[in-house]
Amino acid sequence: MPVKSFLAQTRGKNGPDIADWLSWFWLVFGTLLIAIPVAWAAISSLKQPAEITRFPPSFVPTAPAQVEVAGYDRPLGLWEVNIDGNTEEMALVRRIGIQASMVDPENPEETVNVPTSDIRPLLELSIAASNYTEPLERFNFLTYFKNSVFVTTVATLLTLLLNAMAAFALSKYRFRGRNAVFVLIISTLMIPLSVVMVPAFLVVVGLNLMDNLWGVILPTIATPTGVFLLRQYMLTIPDELIEAGRIDAASEFRIFWRIVLPLTAPALAVLAIFSVIWRWNDFLWPLIVLIRPENFTLQVGLNAFKGQYQVQWHYILAMTMLSLAPVTIIFVFLQRYITAGIANTGIK
């Protein structure tokens, strides 16, 4: 459907009614609620460190204008100075308490002391590209990125396979206790992560998977949400298709692989999106399992920019924007399956 025709649709016969206006208001409000923080983080990632914490904040990346002054080794910042009701552009030499020492760039021999309340910085557009380039040069960002891609890709593939096999057994096989097993799996959703974290850690230690990416992957591949989502979708697949495959002497695995999985593609795409978001954004479990920096995932690596006394927000924001790119790309390609996948899982 063309975008123009879609936007022109109304519930009212003679034009938009109250339901249409409320729907548009809610859609616009929800979009802004999600988009504004992301846009603000993207803009702030291009600001100088001092500009990120400046109040009142500026929407565009700016920095104090600087000028070369004779007799000084480094450029000085330009400020607007109010002297006897007149506004002049002067360079700041130093600031001590509530007094600022200023000089005229054209006449640097004479220094003027003025109250800091009478000066205001001259700002100009400044794109801090170094926020992106310096972490790539000074830190192991590419190593963290590679580890996150490996963990996310492998964990997602194993999650899809394992949950699909469990969902196939719970939806297409008749055996005693099937419903009890399904209820038991769903009931694990009520168990907090903090309860299973210590037992999972002891299992990882016992399997000698500490400080290993597989120790991050394996404990997270079985998810009750995935089993529920895929089982509810597989219940909509006619049993006659499976019986036809058995009549043709197809093995159970071949029926699962060649018949059931292709028909479950929309639900698999939904679970893939969820799994990528879960694994890519996971911080606590990799922080517990991984020790050496060369094994850190991206989210754990970003924590290196936070020191005991100082937080390098300009680096964190820049690397966060880079870390959002893969998830956004995957969502763009798979988002058309979300509605179809969820609508057929029994969540209505």
UniProtKB/TrEMBL annotation:
PROSITE patterns: ABC_TM1 (PS50928). Residues 145-334 form the ABC transmembrane type-1 domain. GO terms for biological process: transmembrane transport. GO terms for cellular component: plasma membrane. It is a multi-pass membrane protein. Gene3D superfamilies: MetI-like. It is found in: Cell membrane. The chain crosses the membrane at residues 21-43, 149-170, 182-207, 213-234, 255-278, 313-334. Keywords: Cell membrane, Membrane, Transmembrane, Transmembrane helix, Transport. Pfam families: BPD_transp_1. Its main location: membrane. PANTHER family: ABC TRANSPORTER PERMEASE PROTEIN MG189-RELATED, ABC TRANSPORTER PERMEASE PROTEIN MG189-RELATED-RELATED. Belongs to the binding-protein-dependent transport system permease family. This is Alpha-1,4-digalacturonate transport system permease protein.
